[in-house]
Amino acid sequence: YHSIVKKQFIALSTKKLLVNGRQSIPCTKFIQSRHYVKSGSQDKLIIFDTTLRDGEQSPGVTLSVEEKLEIARRLSNLGVDVIEAGFPIASRGDFEAVSRIAKEVGPLMHGREKIGKPMVIAGLSRATEKDIKRCYDAVSSAPLHRIHTFLATSDIHLNHKLKIDRNECIRRAASAVAYAKSLCDDVEFSSEDSGRSDRDFLCQVLGKVIEAGATTLNIPDTVGYTTPDEYGALIKYLIENTPGSHKVIWSTHCHNDLGLATANTLSGIHNGARQVEVTVNGIGERAGNTSLEEVVMNIHTHPSTYPVHHTINTQLIYSTSTLVSSLSGMVVQPNKAIVGANAFLHESGIHQDGVLKHKQTYEIISPEDVGVFNVNLVLGKLSGRNAFRSRLEQLGYFNMDDADFDKAFDRFKALADTKKRVTDHDLLALISDQVSSGRDPELFNLQSIQVVSGTHEMATATIKLFDSSQNKELMDAAIGRSGPIMAVFGAIQRLVQRKIRLLHYEVRAVSEGMDALGKVVVKITEDIDSSGFETDSNSHKHTIDGVVKPMIDSKGETKLSKNTYHGHGTDIDVVTASAKAYVNAINRMFASEINGAKQRSSLEDRKANI
């Protein structure tokens, strides 16, 4: 392997990986995700996507196992090198999600033929043996897998959070990496809060973890504090002064608190980093993480400026962004670079004139390069299965089984009966709704809705649901003093016999025209039950000495459940879409309670700051 940073060749031993009992997929034993490049050419930039771990720490985002699997498949097709599938120790549900990604997505090669190997599946663990073993058990079934462990190194964290001294920090870090190395060849270590850590102490810690067997060193700017010059200088200093630095891949992990995540990451690349940790749409805790699409398209647009190349299929960027936005409920701001709705729109007359004469007058990136096509394949009610399947594959849905395809085709036909022209945006919305619903039957299914509303009258709504647990239809009605949506939500609450607090409601058009699909996103939490008391995650009332008591916080107010649930629905009728979204969120809430210990952890439980 030729390193531009060290300007020398690094000899790496290779081995064959066992996949289903057969030897295949030759790769380096030293590090699984490194690509060979010819002398004098650019280094391969490793794209490490943490949408399913750090991105899911966005407030209010909890993806189901099926949703995580669908996003993981899409990231594999996109050409991502490493995916951080989750934090396995957080709960049994999180362990199951990571394990299924390792088994079902880990071996996939579709769309990766030129890369020559499947995606590396990584899991996150704290620097303890219990965490590391749990992480290994979750990811080990993937042909290529990685343990990613971390420990804080800044004095403010050591003194106030961990309450340990520097020597103990070095011991714990080296011990954790050594144990991880005994289980797995590919081990990544992150020094949490590197941006505020003492540089020379960082060199000591990182030197010891290299001795212990780390193959990737990640330098997180955990709180988004550093500037591009400072972060680039930090990467350069660590590479030049850490013993054994030439043996490992150096990685960036930047947060966007000051809006500098992408700039810091690119500065890190200029100064020797060869892996970048990113998320789709830049989602993540607080102000988010470095945006995958921004880093990739910077390198794509300036191929001679950066000393690296990537293997991302950029034409799948937009559809991947749309999928993540739909399933997470995190709406992309219109002026977001690369994937925002306004990214390729021109309002100014001067700009419009220039683009009409020559696109490059005001477009430095072709919309088609990221999968935004102005002229869509026209699908309608006369379109057949082959045309529909072909368009889905062009949008990145290569791996749909027959059952899922049949369900999607039926939904498409139903839409085509009411809409003359079905666009790519419509298809992406339909598929994301289908993924969100999952393959298992939902507890409640919306059967019908009837709403009466007027300017001077209170709205009324009659809702019919099918309850699969009782195998019967339920019907009730409610009034809405604030309009039809309030009436619909009130009727649904009466049917499910829960009192629910609406935390967020958003409606937007998926495409253009009077017959455009409307997409609704809601976020809910359980307030108090119909008796006036909050219920816990297992539906048992909170009691003291056998007497039901309300859950009261320190201010004397009734407490809300700490769990939030998002749902989304799509329909030409936005009132119906609202009902679908509300029922979708309620189904998530009930599924969480029914599954008990197997449920995905809450945001608070799975949070891991790096």
From TrEMBL:
- Source species, domain of life: Eukaryota
Know the name of this protein? Answer: 6114_t:CDS:1
Q: What is the native source organism of this protein?
A: Scutellospora calospora
